[in-house]
């Protein structure tokens, strides 16, 4: 399983600011190793954030996203202090990672 995501969520004036740092190599499939062999593509393809059962953010990524992607988004009217935000990504090898944090 992949390393945990670092998630921070803070609420101010009714707007929740969510910041996510994902640990992932994000290989494009175009680089070569020391022996000259192509390194296979391996990247996060989808990401979802939920509060309870409600989907509040969804994204699709591709091979052009850099290693260890950082994502920030804001939610208005979809969260408050004490709510739990659950973030899940799936990569092109169907590996998945889910982490959560409470809104502060």
TrEMBL record:
Sulphur oxidation protein SoxZ domain location: 7-101
Domain of life: Bacteria
Database matches in InterPro entries: Ig-like_fold (IPR013783), Ig_E-set (IPR014756), SoxZ (IPR030995), SoxZ_dom (IPR014880)
Organism per entry: Zwartia hollandica
Protein encoded by which gene: soxZ
NCBIfam families referenced in this protein's UniProt entry, alphabetically: SoxZ_true
Gene3D superfamilies according to UniProt: Immunoglobulins (2.60.40.10)
Protein name (record): Thiosulfate oxidation carrier complex protein SoxZ
Pfam family for this entry, one: SoxZ
């Amino acid at each position: 399983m992949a390393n945990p995501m670092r998630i921070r969520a803070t609420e101010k004036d009714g707007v929740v600011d969510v910041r996510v740092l994902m640990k992932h190599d994000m290989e494009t499939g175009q680089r070569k190793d020391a022996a000259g062999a192509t390194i296979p593509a391996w990247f996060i393809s989808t990401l979802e954030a939920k509060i309870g059962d409600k989907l509040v953010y969804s994204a699709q990524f591709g091979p052009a996203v850099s290693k260890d992607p950082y994502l920030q988004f804001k939610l208005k009217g979809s969260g408050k202090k004490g709510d739990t935000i659950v973030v899940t990504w799936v990569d092109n090898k169907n590996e998945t990672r889910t982490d959560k944090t409470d809104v502060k």
